[in-house]
């Protein structure tokens, strides 16, 4: 696997800390329902194809928008919430690029159906899913990817070097 759970967790922690000033903890329960949550995704295409999805509970989404736009949480509008979550997802995707075979590009953030993780990409498999807590609220970050492409990318005949999977 190109991206380890530890590296993925490190990227999420650093993004939350540096962008929001929020701490991230592992959730006690691995259960998180994306139903009723805000969901934003960024597709990764190129030498490796995949997608990063952020599933965020409404209370946490409001806290995130409040931190980014410097408003009270109950004053954060849905557009601000989606903009804030889109920015975080794009930052996470950008940091993941360093761990993936090159070249890869990121799409603009989009709003997928949160209940169907393979809705447009049935060949993708779950690479990693983190269920986390921040500000006392749950959220999940999912990395989906094309394992056959990842396996080809790791082959010396297709890719000259392996990228370290440890987050600095």
Strand content: 15-25%
- So how many helices? 4
Write out the strand line-up for the largest beta sheet, numbering strands in chain order.
1-5-6-3-2-4
Q: Between the first and last Cα atoms, what is the distance in angstroms?
A: 18 Å
* Low-confidence segments: 149-168
CATH class: Alpha Beta
CATH superfamily: CheC-like
Number of strands: 6
> At CATH's second level, what is the architecture?
3-Layer(aba) Sandwich
- Describe the oligomeric state of these chains in a short phrase: single chain
What is the fold-level CATH name, i.e. the topology? Chemotaxis protein chec
Query: Helix-strand pattern, N to C?
Result: HEEEHHEEEH
Q: Total domains, how many?
A: 1
Shape: globular
Q: Which percent bin holds the helix content?
A: 25-40%
Average pLDDT confidence is 80
Main sheet, how many strands, which sense, barrel? Answer: 6 strands, antiparallel
Which descriptors apply to this entry?
168 residues; disordered C terminus; 4 helices; six-stranded antiparallel sheet; Chemotaxis protein chec; alpha+beta
Question: Which helices and strands appear, and what pairs or packs with what?
Answer:
Blueprint: H1 5-20, E1 25-26, E2 38-46, E3 50-56, H2 58-69, H3 78-97, E4 104-106, E5 125-134, E6 137-145, H4 147-154
Antiparallel strand pairs: 1-5, 2-3, 2-4, 3-6, 5-6
Helix pairs in contact: 1-3, 2-3
Provide structural commentary:
The chain has helices spanning 5-20, 58-69, 78-97, 147-154; strands at 25-26, 38-46, 50-56, 104-106, 125-134, 137-145. It has 168 residues and is α+β, with helices and mostly antiparallel strands. The protein has a single domain (5-153), classed as Chemotaxis protein chec (3-Layer(aba) Sandwich), CATH 3.40.1550.10. The chain has a 6-stranded antiparallel β-sheet. Helix 1 (5-20) packs across helix 3 (78-97). It is globular, with a radius of gyration of 16 Å. It starts with a helix and ends in a 14-residue tail after the last helix. 36% of the residues are buried.
